[in-house]
């Protein structure tokens, strides 16, 4: 029985191909199919292999029926199911262990059934491409401009000469200049792929070259070897596009460098206080960053559980908490261990390294060794394009945030009584003490401040990094590098150092590769420190020299 | 003076107490030794590899517990001995020695990275014990004391490349990996394979990054640039461990969709995906010999047992866990067949043993100490699971010496008597490695 069904479906697909081809030629405005015809075609989507499903998709698209786009959309999103016994294809929406079913043809709700009775129709990348192309052709005349633009982009990827009539129809109707251009580019791509006249193709090359991006490069490269005018024009266009891209690449490297620099700055700025200002070699600094990231995780977990609506604010809530948690741990470390070790750098190094291991293992025992999922709030997901550079929101916000933290810290140290006392203790401890400053208290608070800042850096880094117990380890070397390079005890040095290293790294990486690039940067720093042991911006003063 | 006396008295008392305790403990362990068969578990529970290896320790504990519920082995209970080599490669060798000579374990299940395996090899050879290694690796090795239950390159990398070529029409390849022995060897094999298939050298881009690399902006944009040469491009990723998460995040951020440039990964499984929002990654691929989404009653049972064991409904299973499942059952069967846990007898009995795997077939141990497995290709779904899009019709036996590398293509391994050689050269007819 089911075999005959399959056969019948296959036959219908073949027939529809033929009929649809005629239809496409004879009457561009697609006719509506009857429910029964459409149903047969839809049921054929549940074929055994990907190739058969692909045929079924094409057959469905050929009908030009306006109900098809929704069915194919559901298929692409994995919402199309086939009954295990009924062999009927339905649109399903998961609701717990059940599926809420809709009829793909009539759009009527069928009811709710256990998902165990249905199998999802599988799609792979090839099918997803076919689906997008099919939906693209079907929705070129949609009322929604966003859909139309997406449709034009999808059609452009197919470069299928058969889409030219549909594109022509759409171009005639289109009013939006931006979408019109995409449609014309899509048409040009299709023309290049067809057996059109040479002059048409040369014009098409000019249209595509106008995009000046990678997509156009990818299309044009294929025609370099074409005979006659077309090949020459394509070669010239490819050279032009390459020049444009090279320029944008330099800009992109600067942006990547600034973005890496801001990450380095965030990671190092807390250390600039504990190591730079206080002179404590704090190997547990990275773990403060890690604790900040875990605080974000816990905050998000609680929000997901109790107030999912607040998710977009989770980072703002996590910021003060991370500062407090990491700061409190910092104060505890200072009071419990480091204050007994002032003036003994080697012991401080070993003790703080031990603390870093303890903190790592404590987090591992409490949260497990696995990465924790820290979500991006909606305002930090996705990207936008500036020319050919795609700027991701998360990186952009981190740059902004790093600069904000930098200036806030600067103000705190330069404009507040606490900052004044801190600088006094750093400059001359005895004298500060004689002036009535409680130096132990200042020590604890300054260390707490440095740790707290590391904590809020962790909140930001949780957005681009793995939140795992090892998070901090990756940053400790980089942080020391930045602080030493920039000049111990100088916040400006940290800023300049971080940005310099970030940009240098990103300009080296394309040529030297990630591994060698990093080595070059290290070698450069070693040489630099030989020449200027106090870094870029050396502090001058009596106590510093001592 | 009196305080001195108290101290001395206290010391004597304590010493006597400690002696007694030691005596008791020795007696206790002697007693235990008669009753149990010890199984060593050598997985990092701290350090960078803990992320992957901790679950393997847990799955071994669960398997041992299940076996004990079934009545143990040879009438004795199994006892797990867990040590922590802390992701420190030389420590693996020390801990292996401790397991074998001090604890007297009958077999060891462990290691993840190739470098940790290489570091314990001499120990297993010297002390003649048995190691089950559950992770996909680069091949080019066959040791008498080691049983490789993970995939060799021909069980993972090569079928994945074939799939991309046939199904996606890929003509341009980015081989991206972490900078250490597994990716470097695998990429060498893949490069030789692709060149042999007629791919032009300029259509292959090879890129290495350090462990834990987190800033992928440049590399992802390089991949994008490489992919805009008009030919369908794919990325074959041997990126290992933590670095995967920021890599996939960056792919999503820069808008590289699986439909445009698919990424097929050999080291990304359910466990690694647990840390990311997979919505932007739908359609990227992974090649393994097992996925949690395999539809099979034995697999359902295994997943249910695992979730119950972890007490967490969100616990996931992955390929190396299945490898331990297969390896442990093979060892149990071989011990039963040999009637003893003696290494020599078990090593001989293991060749040819077949046990059910979790994807509905039977895996058997080949004479080269590698096993037969199906090769599955899966696409990442938005729930962090894999949708299987391709499966080899039969099982594939691991090929330890790659056919595509100079120097290893003439080698075979057969540990059965009379050959009993891990690197027999079929051209020179000699046992002893590369010609």
Automatic annotation (TrEMBL), chain A:
Its main location: membrane. The chain crosses the membrane at residues 254-281, 313-333, 396-413, 480-504, 510-529. The keyword Transport applies. The keyword Transmembrane applies. It is found in: Cell membrane. One of its GO terms (molecular function) is transmembrane transporter activity. GO terms for cellular component: plasma membrane. One of its GO terms (biological process) is amino acid transport. It is a multi-pass membrane protein. CDD domains: TM_PBP1_LivH_like. It comes from the Bacteria. Keywords: Amino-acid transport, Cell membrane, Membrane, Transmembrane, Transmembrane helix, Transport. Pfam families: BPD_transp_2. Belongs to the binding-protein-dependent transport system permease family. LivHM subfamily. This is Urea ABC transporter permease subunit UrtB. It comes from Methylobrevis albus. The lineage of its organism: Bacteria, Pseudomonadati, Pseudomonadota, Alphaproteobacteria, Hyphomicrobiales. The gene is urtB.
From TrEMBL, chain B:
CDD domains: PBP1_FmdD-like. Keywords: Signal. InterPro entries: ABC_urea-bd_UrtA (IPR017777), Peripla_BP_I (IPR028082). It holds the Pfam family Peripla_BP_5. Residues 1-32 form the signal peptide. PANTHER family: ALIPHATIC AMIDASE EXPRESSION-REGULATING PROTEIN, PTHR47628. This is Urea ABC transporter substrate-binding protein.
